[in-house]
Design brief:
The complex is a heterodimer of chains A (143) and B (424).
Chain A: E1 3-11, H1 16-26, E2 31-38, E3 42-49, H2 52-61, E4 66-77, H3 82-92, E5 97-102, E6 110-117, H4 120-129, E7 134-135, H5 137-141
Antiparallel strand pairs in A: 1-3, 1-4, 2-3, 4-6, 4-7, 5-6
Chain B: H1 3-24, H2 26-35, H3 56-61, E1 75-81, E2 89-94, H4 95-112, E3 119-122, H5 130-142, E4 145-147, H6 154-164, E5 168-171, H7 173-185, E6 197-201, H8 207-217, E7 220-227, E8 232-238, E9 245-247, E10 252-257, E11 271-277, E12 288-294, E13 296-297, E14 309-310, E15 315-316, E16 321-323, E17 326-328, H9 330-341, E18 347-353, E19 359-366, H10 376-394, E20 399-403, E21 410-411, E22 414-415, E23 418-420
The chains are: A alpha+beta (143), B alpha/beta (424).
Chain lengths: 143, 424
């Protein structure tokens, strides 16, 4: 039910984002979703890719600081209030979202979002209980 | 004083102090025994070369009170400066030592042109840092009226200057420039300031900085030198001719040595300043290695003084840097990082002088796989923790910046720890 996210530490200097994504390109790793969280001096690039293990290994080998985290991808109705429904259910169960971002691809009528939770197992149970569709590793790879 | 009489005084005092420490100090007793020297070894002032050196490491190894030559009860005052690692350097002063401090600092003030009845604004920090109290004792000894401002609160400093009209200002040279910026903002006419003489020290500064201060404030800017291990400010001081700092060699005997061989270098050649305190009682030091690179000139000065003149500091034998008057050793930074993260992180110090004249220290810390997180707040927590620990160790606030691994320049496999961008 969980999928793997790669996080990469990037200093705020020109060319570093390019370095990271071009490395993944060379390794024929496809990026499914990404976001950057930034502070004054650095950013954290977060990625969902088709080959997470290879991506993490390649980045580290190339001198990047990178780690992997479990996150959850959830299908959301691509209609007004779709995201609010999911967040409302989580909020009712007192589950905090650390951060979230959207996928590039989407299936017809559905948007796909990834969530990072403080307590992922509790979050998965809540989502399942509320009948939201959680997208698994295999589906991410075949997107 | 003619050089021969000075030499005789130095010789008599050296004999006395060697006798004193070989009885009073278990540290020197042991050191002298290892080298086979006794008070009888001293038959002339040049025999000082036969005595062992004392180093900053000796101070660290004997922390806190191992180098005292009298019971702690008889120590009148202690001062503390940065050590190379966790422990600071501790100096104990007897009542006589505090008097000596006042005496040499009074001489220094006099040398710069101060006269009984003048008013002095002391904007050096008071407290464990020797700057404030050193100037304070000397001013009383000379009979000056003291405004003990301590450092900071610039607006108030400027108000007191405008209202009280002190003739003398004592602070770090960078603070003198910093105050100028603030004064301009307040619309003050800097050339109308009451300050005529500045006693500037506690950090390295150049001739160009001197010109800038003199032009900005229309005052005489003189250099004062000292280090807490010896006494604090008052070891040497420039006169109005500004051609080297007169070292009070009747009480602080100077030698200039090659730091590698320990041998004396010829007059005028650069070398490490080594100082023996000839009359101190609380914690006398024999041949203390200051790690400051200077040269010495024994010629009589235009001002008439025969005291030798030591140049401005040309460099250091170690990697110590001085930021806002405070000694900073890269090893201290390393020590803090080790305690914060339990790792051996790579770091680099960047010192820069901002346009206002104040120095800023930025500490770059390479992010380690171990403490990296996908969450910004976790990294920020670590940054804050490092910053807080640094502030409590260094005594001032430094900027901490996390950088990618291997971004810190390494030359021949060794990381370059300090980048000093100040033009001094």
């Amino acid at each position: 039910m969980k999928i793997t996210q790669i996080s990469v530490f990037l200093e705020n200097k020109s060319g570093r984002l390019y370095d990271a994504v071009s490395l993944l390109g060379k390794k024929k790793i496809n990026i499914r979703a990404l976001t950057i969280a930034e502070s004054e001096d650095y950013g954290i690039l977060r990625l969902v890719v088709d080959k997470p293990a290879l991506a993490a290994e390649s980045l580290k080998k190339d001198g990047f600081v990178a780690n992997i985290t479990d996150i959850v991808a959830v299908e959301i109705a691509d209609t007004p209030g779709g995201l609010a429904k999911v967040l409302g259910a989580l909020s009712k169960d007192k589950i905090d979202v650390e951060y979230m971002y959207a996928f590039v691809e989407k299936q017809s009528g559905k948007a796909l979002m990834v969530f990072r939770f403080e307590n992922i197992d509790k979050a998965v149970r809540s989502l399942a209980k509320n009948k939201f569709v959680i997208v698994g590793k295999k589906e991410i790879q075949s997107l | 004083m003619d050089p021969e009489s000075l030499k005789n005084i130095q010789f008599e005092r050296l004999k006395e102090i060697v006798k004193y420490v070989s009885v009073q100090s278990s540290f020197y007793k042991k050191k002298f025994a290892e080298m086979g020297v006794t008070p009888k070894t001293i038959k002339g002032i040049s025999d000082i070369k036969k005595l062992p050196f004392t180093t900053k490491e000796d101070m660290r190894d004997n922390y806190p009170f191992g180098l005292l030559c009298m019971p702690l009860k008889q120590i009148a005052e202690v001062h503390v400066s940065s050590g190379t690692t966790g422990n600071p350097t501790v100096v104990g002063y007897s009542k006589e030592d505090v008097d000596l401090w006042g005496e040499v600092m009074a001489r220094a003030l006099c040398c710069a042109g101060a006269e009984r009845g003048d008013m002095i604004q002391i904007a050096y920090g008071y407290g464990l840092f020797t700057g404030g109290l050193g100037l304070h004792y000397g001013s009383h000894k000379l009979g000056l009226t003291v405004i003990p401002c301590s450092s900071g609160q610039t607006k108030r400093q400027l108000k007191l200057m405008t209202d009280f009209k002190p003739r003398i200002l004592a602070c770090t040279p960078s603070y003198a420039l910093f105050m100028a910026d603030e004064a301009r903002e307040l619309g003050l006419n800097l050339h109308k300031s009451s300050w005529e003489i500045g006693i500037f020290g506690a950090e390295p500064w150049s001739e160009s900085m001197r010109r800038e201060i003199e032009k900005t404030w229309d005052m005489l800017a003189t250099d004062v030198y000292g280090l807490s291990e010896i006494i604090g400010p008052g070891v040497s001081q420039e006169c109005q001719h500004k051609k080297g700092l007169h070292i009070f060699s009747d009480v602080f005997f100077p030698e200039i040595i090659d730091p590698k061989t320990g041998k004396e270098v010829p007059e005028g050649e650069p070398g490490e300043l080594v100082v023996t305190t000839l009359t101190k009682k609380g914690m006398p030091l024999i041949r203390y290695r200051t790690r400051d690179i200077v040269s010495i000139n024994y010629e009589k000065c235009q001002c008439g003084r025969t005291l030798p003149r030591v140049s401005k500091i040309k460099g250091r034998t170690d990697d110590m840097i001085i930021v806002r008057g405070i000694n900073v050793f890269p090893s201290q930074i390393e020590h803090v990082l080790l305690t914060v993260e339990g790792t051996n992180p790579h770091y680099q110090l960047i010192v820069d002088r901002k346009s206002g004249g104040m120095d800023e220290l930025e500490i770059l810390v390479e992010v380690e796989q171990k403490f990296f997180s996908d969450e910004v707040k976790k990294l920020q927590t670590i940054e804050q923790k490092i910053k807080k620990e640094m502030e409590s160790t260094l005594g001032f606030s430094a900027k901490v910046r996390l950088v990618e691994p291997r971004t810190i320049e390494r030359s021949e496999g060794k990381a370059k720890r300090v980048i000093d961008k100040r033009k001094i």
